[in-house]
Amino acid sequence: MSAALKMDTPAPLMRLKDVHVTFRTRDRTVHAVNGVDMELAQGEVLCILGESGSGKSVTLRALMRLLPKFAQVSGGVEVAGRDVMAMNEKELSHYRGGDVSMIFQEPMTAMDPVFTIGRQIAEVVQRHEGVSRSVADARALELLELVQIPSAKRRLAAYPHELSGGLRQRAMIAVALACRPKLLLADEPTTALDATVQIQVLLLLRELQQKMGMGVIFVTHDLGVAGEIADRVAVMYAGKVVEEGPVASFMAGPAHPYPRGLLNSTVHGNMRGKILTTIPGAPPSLSTKPVNCSFAPRCTMAEQACLDAIPPMVELGGGRRARCIKLG
Amino acid sequence: MDTQIDQSGVDRGGPAQPLLTLEGLQKHFPIKGGLMGRTVATVRAVDGVTFTVQKGETLGIVGESGCGKSTTARLLMRLMPPDTGTMIFDGESVGEGNAGGIALRDYRRQVQMVFQDSYASLNPRLPIEDSIAFAPKVHGLSDAEARTRARDLLAAVGLAPQSFARRYPHELSGGQRQRVNIARALALRPRLVILDEPVSALDKSVEAQVLNLLVELKAQFGLTYVFISHDLNVVQFISDRVLVMYLGEVAEIGPVDAIYDRPAHPYTRALLASRPSMDPAKRRTEPPLTGDPPNPVNPPSGCRFRTRCTLAEDVCAAKKPLMADLGGGHLAACHIASPGSGHSKAGVMA
């Protein structure tokens, strides 16, 4: 019985428990992440959706322990059964690139301009697997072929600036996948790309994710991108998850007023001649810790109770939940 | 006094005369190299572009990076001179003030621009009110008049002047800054506003606010827009006509419904098919196009799209396609769209 239970609910690949991140400098304090709970199953693709300042990228960096020293991080971060918060520098350097790796929005700044891409991929392999240079170089070629870079052999000797934006992003994916990570973190990797190239990279990521069975957390502000790649969606606002659920039911109709407004204000299809629905106002500054629903000042349904306390997550069935008292 | 600055902005040729006519516009950038600094290559950024902007319409320009849409915007604004080609603004040749045309100073009063980067395009040391009032003062308004106009415009773009006028750009959010840029573009009462990716840097909820504002201001001030964007959904929302650019050339131009419902150029079709669908049940399985846009330094011969086109034949490499007229102002530069071009599918798919 217990074995069967275990089969049904395998341990999650990643678990965040009440994660808080506060940036404190002499001039100001920013409460970027304010209690995020999140889980990712093995081989699952989770999209974190949110606008700028919602804390989505900071959450990703907290998972990688990539935040600067002046950031105060608390809460539990667990990946593949290991406590990331308790890792020392040596363990972290195995963890980063080995268990978990990350791709960024701008490959030009994420890659080293003075080394060829072949060298940068081989370096990761050598460092993590301790193999010889020639073995690592062979792996680099395999990886470039894996990410479908045409004439891969020739491209090994190319420097990042010699590649187009789409190929550079593919090369960065190759670096990230060099040690077959269990979890891939993607921070808006297609935002800087043209539409025709973006769809190619999204399809590639989905194909590689299925082939390698890895979990992916994909941060984006673009609902369309989430529609193309996500299994599940988590929407962040003011450093909190306000709604999460399977992508299909979410896209069919979000429950929380914020993602509902976001979906309505996204221009799609033929909306010409109509006045677009907007969310009035702007996101909060986060200089103080939220004590109630952060979205209440912009919400048309807000009432006094919204301002009294932080609304709890309400289970909506079908794996969906949202943080709004109106849904209770 | 206020009318003095507006006088040149009156309609001359009537509604049927295009506000702006561009013919064979070309801009090449030389790449210098070698010991003697000789020209080793040429970026053919805009290569023979012809189109008109009708009075009161919004013309959307779409295309991928490097297709020349921003260079076109800068040429329209005359931030740089074209190598060849003519620009006619409401019947007057642009840049020929002496020879019966319109002088640049007068042209720029009537044509203004909003840029993508709302922060870089405002002077960080000037309160926004002063930024908006700057151009009217240069063009002869008194300080008090310019200030009144700036405050009126701030109100028109939804920023209450009493609380915003004295603020600096860094004290505003991205959406608010873009509103300031729009107000500044309107300060000279222009007839044509060129919007170069005005909402691309904004969050979705703010993007919708700014798009609504642009629609509203267009009606209020009787404006004509050239709206440049890589976002096909936004272009469909705001445009009356759409121009699709590829590698410095016009691939297709036509009324917005014709372009979106009956795209004739394979590139336009691929571009439209590349939009992510919001519906997870309708995910793409194949990318509509492979590869990146080629480099505009050495564009392919004949049809520039042929290297990525699944329908390309020998004729596409041999001959540059002519603009095929599909009726109703819908034109496409593709051999398939023009019967008798020599392409085996010519006339079949159109």
In total, the number of strands of chain B is 12
Overall structural domain count of chain A: 1
Identify the CATH class of chain A. Answer: Alpha Beta
Shape summary of chain A:
globular
**What assembly state would you assign to the polypeptide chains in this entry?**
heterodimer
Shape descriptor of chain B reads globular
Q: What keyword list fits this structure?
A:
heterodimer; A: 328 residues; alpha/beta; Rossmann fold; 8-stranded mixed beta sheet; 4-stranded antiparallel beta sheet; 12 strands; 23% strand; globular; disordered N terminus; B: 350 residues; 2 domains; 11 helices
Structure description:
The complex is a heterodimer of chains A (328) and B (350). Chain A is α/β, with parallel strands linked by helices and 328 residues long. The relative contact order of chain A is 0.14. Chain A has a single domain, classed as P-loop containing nucleotide triphosphate hydrolases (Rossmann fold). Chain A has helices at 2-8, 56-64, 89-99, 107-110, 117-129, 133-146, 152-155, 165-177, 195-212, 223-229, 247-252, 257-265; strands at 14-24, 29-40, 45-49, 71-79, 82-83, 100-103, 183-187, 215-220, 232-237, 240-246, 314-317, 320-322. The radius of gyration of chain A is 21 Å and the shape is globular. Chain B has eleven helices and twelve strands. An eight-stranded mixed sheet of chain B has the order 6-7-8-3-9-10-12-11, sandwiched between helices. In chain B, strand 11 and strand 12 form a beta hairpin. With 350 residues, chain B is α/β, with parallel strands linked by helices. Chain B folds into two domains: 4-245, 3-Layer(aba) Sandwich (Rossmann fold); 263-337, no CATH class. The interface between A and B is large, with 44 and 47 residues.
